[in-house]
Amino acid sequence: MNKPYNIEANAGDGLVAALQNAQEHYGFLPEDVIEKISEVTDVPLSQIYGVITFYSHFSLKPVGKHYIKVCRGTACHVRGADSVIEAFKDQLNIGVGDTTEDRMFTLETVACLGACALAPLVLVNKQYYGKVDYEKINEILSLGAKEE
Amino acid sequence: MTATKIPVKRLGSIDSLDILRKGLISLKGKKETYVAICGGTGCRASGSVELAEELKKELKTANLDSKIDVRLTGCLGFCEHGPLAVVNPDRTFYQLVKESDAKEIVKETLIGGKVIERLLYKEPDTCRSVIKEEDIGFYKKQHRVVLAMNGMVDPTKIEDYVENGGYKAFSRVLSQMTPEDVIEEIEKSGLRGRGGAGFPTGKKWRLCRAQKSHKKYVICNADEGDPGAFMDRSVLEGNPQSVIEGMLIAGYAIGADEGYVYVRAEYPLAVKHLQVAIHMAEELGLIGKNILGSKFSFKINIKQGMGAFVCGEETALMASIEGKRGMPRIRPPYPVESGLFGVPTIINNVETMASIAHIINNTADWFASMGTEKSKGTKIFSLTGKVANTGLIEVPFGISLKEIIYDIGGGIPDGKKLKAVQIGGPSGGCIPESMIDLPIDYESLTQAGTMLGSGGMVVMDESTCMVDIARFFLSFTQDESCGKCVPCRIGTKRILEILEKMTKRRTKMEDLEKLEELAGVVKKASLCGLGKTAPNPLLSTIKHFRDEYIAHIEERRCPAGVCFKRAKPSVAREAVKA
User: Do B228 and A131 touch (CB under 8 A)?
Assistant: First the structure.
């Protein structure tokens, strides 16, 4: 986050690429970065915000160190994804779409990760956890305890 | 690693491609021993990459790394039993393989030639161990065409694809066929769009070819958004070159010089493999200017989706590529007349694209010999939910749902009974157990009140509440509705509100009537396919499971025991295994 990021150099082939690259770098889209992208791409801010708020991939808020995405696809639903979501909500004391106060965890749901045979599935950053049960939920939650 | 390295040089002609292929085959030698480890996302999550690395280490220790190849391949399909390892050429099939099994596999099987009994699949009824992949019940009734190379090629190595016949079809098209010949062949094959709508592919190409334009585009729709579906993911991860070859042939046929693959960002491995595949094809000169010395040039770009299901709809997809909000527009004009950036465009699904080379190589007649009268060829399905063998299957059209669930799927586990099968994702409907003999093809499913969709098949047993399923699908489509048209934006919201109330509190029979009325309006009046098909899960569950709705309303009772309770947030894994 403190690494210098050159918006012009990462503008790609247009607005969407610029936004995707910035999101990849910062984990979300800070206000000043969006303004800069508007300058570089010559697209009005209103249009840019229209694009950002349309797509669930983009976030206007900073995300936690461990971005928990619980899959709520059909197969995961049938195999108990709702209970997994409730367990995370209860243990982290946040709702879906929120980040914990210590910025350790963000809890989100995602429509389908496509690994349906491993339902219920949870993705934490880029790590997949399949056939999630109480033990695996604890394993994920303990990621926060390991940090300084 | 077997030394199959041939200096990568830009191929200047079809002859040089043939020479490369022959060279690769002769380097392989007469007998090829290799271990295919499933490298699909599912098996990776269970440790298949670590297993592959360990096997390579053990082979190196035994000084066999130059003779025996360890290949991390695409999805082998038997996901419930992953990680999977297939020892070739014998086709010995090992399942639930752990990293710690690597040493024994090298010692006993690769060196000793013996089979490790405990790693073999056992038929659940007889407890009989099965050695070869093709003898396993899950695979016997399948007919793998598009997925055929998934267990053979390393998706990050273009030479594997070429060695196994890749780009033969494209070479033939360039040297022996006119664009008209290609379109005729695809029309004759009867190939229909595998994304769900089932539009005849040849007809779409012909319509686009007929347009006079200086610029045309080929788009491969890889925004596989249906929850429960991962067919396209597996093709892109496992054999991305097959999609590229399809796009090249499509571009040649319609007169386009540029293409896009629009792929979900939720599929990072598919994106990565596609990037590698395009790069390698460019290096070999199979993508670029004057390909293989011909007048045909083609460029392929990748665009990643940004988490909007509606962008799987073709007009929304194009808006997204153009950098706008992914909102559909009215048709006509259809994309073949005015598509991406206003020029003629064809949009084809991943599986459709991956079928093209097979048709050119084996003839349209061969393709049309599989399937039914109006649904030709094979289809990939992702079989998930309450079924013993969850995974990826490829079957000829016309096979019955019963054969899929019981012969391939292994039936319903834990002694439970089959209740229904959801086909077609949020656009589809449920087939109840009473209709289990239904043949699977475009027409039969439409007549049964559902649709084929992209291939997601979710099996449900007696513990699934059909009212809750309708609520689940509507909460998905409501969330994903782009908001442009009133029937979808407001209609799905009102439907969802009633369904949520129906699963939590007291409702009346007039609420059920309201649901049916709303569903009819949303279906008829919505702008695009998302809205038009959103009521399908609701309508089909009301049709086949009306008694469940009535129990919820009149008795405030959920026959499956799912609704009307606030679940305590403790998790007992509601698993297929106890």
Answer: no
* B222 and B232 Cβ atoms separated by less than 8 Å: yes
User: What pairs with residue B540 in β-bridges?
Assistant: none
- Model confidence band, residue B6 (pLDDT cutoffs 50, 70, 90): low
Q: Which of B266, B567, B571 sits opposite A110 (nearest CB)?
A: B266
- B203-245 pLDDT per residue, tens: 999 999 999 999 999 999 999 999 889 999 999 999 999 999 9
pLDDT at B334: 96
Cβ(A107)–Cβ(A146) under 8 Å?
Answer: no
Among A43, A84, A128, beta carbon nearest to B45: A128
Pairing of strands A122-124, B34-38: unpaired
**pLDDT at res. B31:** 52
How far is Cα B14 from Cα B290, in angstroms, rounded to an integer?
12
Helix then strand then coil, % of chain B, to nearest 5:
45, 15, 40
**Model pLDDT for residues B268-324, shown as the tens digit of each residue:** 899 999 999 999 999 999 999 999 999 999 999 999 999 899 999 999 999 999 999
Tell me how far apart the alpha carbons of residues B17 and A143 are, in angstroms, rounded to a whole number: 51
Mean pLDDT over all residues of chain B? Answer: 92
The answer to whether B397 and B377 have CB atoms below 8 angstroms apart is yes
Query: Angle at CA B121, nearest 5°, toward B119 and B127?
Result: 115
Q: Which residue type does B142 have?
A: Q
Chain B positions in Cβ-Cβ contact with residue A89 (cut-off 8 Å): 569
Q: Comparing B142 with B31, which gets the higher pLDDT?
A: B142
Q: Which of residues 78-117 of A touch B (CB under 8 A)?
A: 78-80, 82-84, 86-87, 89-91, 110-117
State the amino acid at position B22 in one-letter form: K
Whole-angstrom distance, CA of residue B288 vs CA of residue A62: 41
Output Rg (C-alpha) for chain A, integer angstroms.
Answer: 17
3-state helix, strand, coil in chain A (%, to 5): 45, 15, 45
Cα distance between residue B544 and residue A106, in whole Å: 40
The radius of gyration of chain B's CA atoms, rounded to the nearest angstrom, is: 25
pLDDT tens, position by position, B29-49:
655 789 999 999 889 888 999
The amino acid at residue B217 is Y
- Per-residue pLDDT for B22 more than 70? yes
Q: In whole angstroms, what is the distance from residue B230 CA to residue A113 CA?
A: 8
CA distances, B185 to each of B76, B226, B351, B366 (Å): 30, 30, 18, 11
State phi, psi for B465 to the nearest 5 degrees.
-95, 125
State how far residue A144 is from chain B, nearest Cα, in angstroms: 20
Residue ranges of the alpha helices (H) in B428-485? Answer: 442-447, 466-480
Q: Collapse the DSSP code of B36 into the 3-class scheme (helix H, G, I; strand E, B; otherwise coil) and give the result.
A: strand
The pLDDT value given to residue B569:
44
**Alpha helices, DSSP H, located in B400-465:** 401-402, 442-447
Task: Report the residue of B43, B236, B306 to disrupt the A interface, i.e. the one with the largest count of A CBs within 10 Å.
Answer: B306
- Distance of alpha carbon B68 from alpha carbon B88, whole angstroms: 10
CB B443 within 8 A of CB B374: yes
Q: Which residues contact B205 (CB under 8 A, 6 or more apart)?
A: B182, B183, B186, B250, B253, B254, B346
